[in-house]
Design a protein that fits this description.
9 strands; 331 residues
Length: 331
């Protein structure tokens, strides 16, 4: 299929999304642009009628601009996005989750921001939460875990943006060095929580010399279902964050030009185990009770995982550091 760089492809990756799609598509249909835009629904091996619902809903919305269905049999958000990227017509891409309701100017603002600075390779915006049920009392302490809220005090260049609503140039993804080494992390597979893929994409783009920009002009609503607003879900979410930490930490070392000391993995492991032991004594009762809303309980569990993760990676970190260093852009 012939590609045209002048436009934006909105990629919506779906796994059993039939019930979530109506409002998502309703907001997409209201985009203040009708030319040079398309929506790609990637059906990631759903067992419901996601594809049929998407086509039917789009017809009911009078087909404001092209919507296409792509199928990806291999499960996982990463694979679904790769399929969307493969079939996209345009150079500017937006990753819209099936529970993201984009502002009507999201697409046009994305195009204008990319057009204004050719060095910007990734864009991020601000998600505003919409709760299916009552907001948990602890939510304000953890809102960024849900990809909502300001990512910076004001618009400007940043190191990372969250994946919901992320804009990216297809050209950077076609850079041979982008996939010169395999990615270390993946995103969610089906309903299983895992994370880090979006952050690794951002860090890899930075290594290649690209800029990442957060804009307050890019806003969307993020619909949060009741099952995601439980203390147990939040704990599992942070467990996923913890398991992705080590590779992302090594990216940061490379980006900052930091050397990798001998037995670095062992020193970091001891550090996190010592921190776990210290604060476990101080917060023993809250840990035993698994007290809902206790920030330190979340931190202690994460530190313990990090201690084990640095041990698990051990000498592999040295090879990881060397491999990631090969991606670094030479000024």
């Amino acid at each position: 299929m012939m590609q045209n760089s002048a436009g934006v492809s909105i990629i919506v990756c779906c796994y059993n999304s039939a019930k979530r799609l109506p409002k998502t598509l309703f907001h997409l249909a209201k985009q203040n642009i009708t030319k040079g835009i398309e929506v790609i629904i990637v059906d990631n091996n759903s067992s419901d009628d996601t594809a049929e619902v998407a086509k039917s809903l789009w017809e009911e919305l009078n087909n404001p601009f092209p919507l296409r269905i792509a199928f990806e049999a291999q499960p996982g958000l990463t694979k679904a996005r790769e399929k969307g990227i493969e079939v996209a017509l345009y150079d500017y891409l937006i990753f819209c989750d099936d529970d993201n309701w984009l502002d009507e100017n999201y697409a046009i603002n994305t195009m204008q921001l990319f057009d204004a600075d050719e060095e910007i390779m990734i864009l991020g915006g601000q998600g505003n939460p919409v709760f299916e049920s009552d907001k948990p009392f602890w939510f304000e302490n953890f809102y960024q875990s849900y990809a909502v809220g300001k990512q910076e005090v004001k618009s400007g260049f940043v190191s990372l943006v969250y994946g919901a609503g992320l804009g990216i140039r297809k050209t950077i993804l076609k850079n041979p060095k982008f996939y010169a080494i395999p990615f270390f992390l993946n995103d969610r597979v089906g309903t299983r929580l895992s994370s880090g893929g979006d952050s690794e994409t951002c860090l890899r783009v930075k290594l290649l010399g690209g800029k990442i920009f957060y804009s307050e002009k890019l806003t969307f609503y993020h619909f949060l279902t009741t099952n995601r607003l439980t203390w147990k879900y939040l704990q599992n979410l942070h467990i996923g964050f913890s398991y992705s930490f080590v590779p992302l930490h090594v990216y940061d070392l490379v980006l900052n030009g930091s050397k990798l000391p001998e037995f670095y993995w062992l020193k970091k492991s001891f550090l996190y185990f010592a921190r776990t032991i210290k604060y476990s004594f101080l917060h023993f009762h809250n840990i035993i009770k698994n007290k809902e809303g206790d920030v330190k309980t979340i931190h202690i569990k994460s530190w313990m995982i990090l201690g084990f993760e640095f041990l698990r990676y051990n000498k592999q970190i040295k090879k990881m550091y060397k491999d990631i260093s090969t991606l670094k852009f030479d000024d």
